[in-house]
Structure to design on (354 residues):
């Protein structure tokens, strides 16, 4: 049975209101991806979806406009407490994706009514596509604040170089010296003994608002609730690490070529560590790529770039001048009589040449 004219107009009014919500919500999400994250794939997906949701049928467009009655909307001035609360960017993204998803579902159902002339499948597909986009967008927004803290001195606590010194006391000295990031690197300690160490370092870093990163060991990073994971070229693939980590955790990747750096950026890395800048004794068989590669990678990616490998008081100035956002130091800190004092000296030089 065909709907009455009054029923048809009311139906069209519902569809029109929800199409407007979809366009408004997608535009906000697109601007977040484009202007806040500088993320091309997300921007393209959201822009394409926004255009696909527009009504191209001119007669139907006219009917929708004819049915519009914004001043007669009884819900226009109704607000619930949750709408009035301040919220951060990830919460804003979630609220708008849900708004779009709900409106897509409404149109899916209303499109089934006889005589409307809308394709239900198109809106259903967009709704399911948006579920995936939401996860990626919100994850990147949640990681953005952490990634922006990849700067300054990045201290790596490598247990092989501590020679019996306490990781905790070393971390305290480094924190007092002003480091911005601490990474735990340990290839030999059994996992059941490594976890308490990671938890101790995590708590120290959290207390002083320092980023805590775990090298290689995804399970330890998860169990210690580290801020992120750093992986090398022979570690767990980035896509698998991203899938298993919580969506607000950052991942750094080591690269020796421009191609690797660009690929890691495309796959969702949050920072790139260029290794090795100079010959080093802290790691065996390190390929030295030098400052030229550091400059080149910095010019090709938008992510923070960390320089690592053989950096000390004698060469940190030229490393910073070459464009490093952050400088990772191991031996020069851990083999110093006073790691904290050396950290301060390194930071002072960095500030002079930034």
């Amino acid at each position: 049975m065909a709907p009455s004219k009054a029923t048809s107009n009311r139906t069209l009014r519902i569809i029109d209101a929800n199409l407007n919500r979809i366009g408004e919500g997608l535009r906000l999400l697109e601007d977040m991806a484009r202007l806040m994250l500088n993320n091309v794939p997300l921007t393209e997906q959201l822009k394409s979806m926004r255009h696909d949701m527009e009504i191209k049928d001119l007669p139907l467009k006219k009917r929708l406009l004819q049915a519009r009655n914004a001043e007669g909307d009884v819900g226009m001035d109704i607000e619930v407490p949750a709408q009035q609360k301040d919220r951060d960017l990830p919460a804003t993204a979630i609220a708008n994706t849900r708004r779009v998803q709900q409106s897509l579902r409404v149109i899916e159902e209303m499109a089934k009514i006889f005589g409307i002339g809308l394709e239900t499948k198109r809106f259903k597909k967009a709704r399911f596509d948006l579920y995936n986009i939401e996860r990626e967008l919100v994850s990147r927004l949640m990681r953005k604040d952490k990634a922006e803290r990849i700067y300054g001195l990045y201290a790596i606590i490598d247990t092989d170089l501590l020679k019996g010194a306490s990781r905790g006391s070393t971390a305290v000295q480094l924190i007092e010296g002003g480091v911005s990031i601490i990474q735990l690197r340990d290839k030999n300690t059994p996992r059941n003994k490594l976890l308490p160490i990671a938890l101790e370092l995590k708590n120290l870093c959290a207390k002083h608002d320092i980023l805590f990163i775990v090298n290689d060991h995804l399970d330890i990073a998860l169990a210690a609730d580290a801020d992120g994971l750093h992986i090398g070229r022979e570690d767990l693939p980035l896509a698998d690490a991203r899938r298993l980590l919580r969506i607000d955790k950052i991942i750094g990747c080591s690269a020796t070529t421009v191609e690797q750096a660009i690929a890691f950026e495309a796959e969702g890395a949050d920072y790139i560590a260029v290794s090795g800048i100079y010959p080093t004794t802290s790691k065996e068989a390190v390929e030295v790529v030098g400052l030229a590669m550091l400059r080149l990678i910095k010019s090709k990616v938008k992510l923070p770039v960390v320089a690592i490998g053989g950096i000390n008081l004698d060469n940190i100035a030229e490393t910073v001048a070459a464009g490093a956002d952050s400088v990772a130091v191991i031996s020069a800190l851990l083999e110093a009589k006073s790691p904290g004092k050396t950290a301060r000296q390194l930071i002072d030089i960095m500030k002079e040449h930034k």
Remarks:
- The mean pLDDT is 92.
- The chain has two domains: 5-145, 149-353.
- The domain at 149-353 is CATH 3.20.20.70 (TIM Barrel).
